[in-house]
């Protein structure tokens, strides 16, 4: 687990509802049970400030950091997808984005990653498709220095679901279903303090589940087979995350109050 990724999980899953800010010392305490050392936390915070995700703030508990508006938009969108909140209904149409990419190679690579995160797939060179228009598309394009024209497609001769590797996604969901119980159980057994154990277990659970944001575009049920394992995986995730939340919340409160 990388420190930067873990920080996004902390701010998105635990601090977003608590003012989106915390002293550095509290963040260090929260990440200690999941194996992220203090120097790595501080280095990751510094990089996230440079990248525009965090900004410094003086708090009662000392110097701290809060998420920027840009980060809050990304965290809220990710949270909606992680917890399947506000799942839109599909009207049967597809959203197309004809992208004029930036000239710099690094910017193009970052743009591709961001578009994939939003749920788009590249249907043809620089033509990206999604079952829904994504609210963050304009922000992502502007940040990369790219432009795009959009269109709505009513019909394809071949369904564009082939733009995503659904076989690999099926295997990933099946693997997650087979390993989630062991993941939670190992963390619960590794910590003597019950609330700390709940936090560590839920943190790892959410961290692993969040990886599907980069692979699963959230296709409508009408486009997925009846035996799609993503449904059972989502149910298991929701059940375990809910079960572990009370102890997790108590541990986070202790870290913030210490």
From TrEMBL:
Top-level taxon of origin: Bacteria
One Pfam family hit: PaaX
One annotated GO biological process: DNA-templated transcription
InterPro entries xref list: PaaX-like_central, PaaX-like_N, PaaX_C, PaaX_trns_reg, WH-like_DNA-bd_sf
Transcriptional repressor PaaX-like C-terminal domain span: 164-253
Coiled coil (residue ranges): none
Residue span(s) of domain Transcriptional repressor PaaX-like central Cas2-like: 89-147
Positions of the Transcriptional repressor PaaX-like N-terminal domain: 3-69
Annotated PANTHER family: PHENYLACETIC ACID REGULATOR-RELATED TRANSCRIPTIONAL REPRESSOR, TRANSCRIPTIONAL REPRESSOR PAAX
UniProt name for this protein: Phenylacetic acid degradation operon negative regulatory protein
Organism lineage: Bacteria, Bacillati, Actinomycetota, Actinomycetes, Propionibacteriales
